UniProtKB/TrEMBL annotation:
UniProt cross-references to Pfam families, sorted A to Z: FA_hydroxylase
Alphabetically ordered keywords of this record: Membrane, Monooxygenase, Oxidoreductase, Transmembrane, Transmembrane helix
Protein name: Methylsterol monooxygenase 1 isoform X2
InterPro entries: Fatty_acid_hydroxylase (IPR006694), Sterol_Desaturase_Related (IPR050307)
Protein location: Membrane
Classification of source organism: Eukaryota, Metazoa, Chordata, Craniata, Vertebrata
Protein encoded by which gene: msmo1
Domain Fatty acid hydroxylase, residue spans: 144-274
GO MF annotation terms: iron ion binding; monooxygenase activity
Bilayer-crossing regions: 60-78, 98-118, 192-217
UniProt-listed GO biological process terms: lipid biosynthetic process
Any one cellular-component term (Gene Ontology): membrane
Species of the source: Clupea harengus
Length: 288
């Protein structure tokens, strides 16, 4: 019964997205994008597109999204938006973080990325232009992936905080009590594998084209770098997402250690009351 209900909800959501897509005007960039994509298909093999394309997207997007937060520390007028103003970034911490990132990216994540082609082949994920979903469907699929990943992250992240295993794995990520954007993927290799596995579950459920892999990578990196940025910048477009946690929510997790275990959304913390200390902290700050 539950499976049928879930299938009905997904079908209804897809129909709604298809309807929105049908009434939207044609994208003026569609033709040049189609020509560029077909050129890629003719010039490279599926293995090269899946492997090197995924690597380039991951590395470029990660460090591109980290760049604003890195620049913020040199702009005095933005320091009023820094959440923990008494804990500025240091070159020593950033260099240590960068070295760990290089190890994780090329010794842990690169071997996983090399399996992307076989992943797409196993699940019969297409590469052709005609099968590529338009952006409204991509956005809806990314949101669905985020809901699934957030659920995985909440329960596994909370488990990694258990005192019997915390010091062996998750303690590495908590070396920085005041996070900064580049620290988003600073973690023990086992944590990278454990929490990172949630990324692929949504892909197995929703993926109907290789481009969703890259769209979901982009959204997930943007989100995790934002919540680790250490800055609560006003007019952040990500706050338009319903129940979005944001930098202040996750920054408290690093500062307080307990609570706020969700990665993207706040609903699991609200349901299990693991955001109680955060709300008390917020009330105290308002009274000051």
């Amino acid at each position: 019964m539950e499976v049928n209900e879930t299938a009905t909800i997904l079908s209804s959501a897809l129909l709604a997205v298809d309807y929105v897509d049908s009434v939207l005007p044609e994208n003026p960039l569609q033709l040049p994008l189609e020509q560029a994509w077909n050129h890629i298909l003719q010039s490279y093999t599926k293995f090269q597109i899946a492997t090197w394309g995924s690597l380039i997207v991951h590395e470029f997007i990660y460090f591109f999204f980290c760049l604003p937060g890195f620049i913020f520390q040199f702009l005095p007028f933005l320091q009023k938006y820094k959440i923990q103003q008494d804990k500025p970034e240091t070159w020593e911490k950033q260099w240590k973080c960068f070295k760990m990132l290089l190890f994780n990216h090329f010794c842990i994540q690169l071997p996983l990325i090399c399996g992307t082609y076989y992943f797409t082949e196993f699940f019969n994920i297409p590469y052709d232009w005609d099968s590529m979903p338009r952006w409204p469907l991509l956005l809806a699929q990314c949101f669905g992936c985020a809901v699934i990943e957030d659920t995985w992250h909440y329960f596994l992240h909370r488990a990694l905080h258990h005192r019997s295993i915390y010091k062996f794995i998750h303690k590495v990520h908590h070396e920085f009590t005041s996070p900064f954007g580049m620290q988003a993927e600073y973690a023990h290799p086992l944590e990278t594998l454990i929490l990172g596995s949630g990324f692929f579950i949504g892909i197995m459920v929703f993926c109907n084209h290789v481009v969703l892999l890259w769209a979901w990578v982009t959204f997930r990196l943007l989100e995790t770098i934002d919540v680790h940025s250490g800055y609560d910048i006003p007019l952040n477009p990500l706050h338009l997402i319903p129940f979005y946690a944001g930098a202040r929510f996750h920054d408290f997790h690093h500062m307080n250690f307990v609570g706020n275990y969700g990665s993207t959304f706040t609903w699991w913390d609200k349901l299990f009351n693991t955001d109680a200390q955060f709300h008390k902290h917020q009330q105290k700050q308002k009274q000051q």
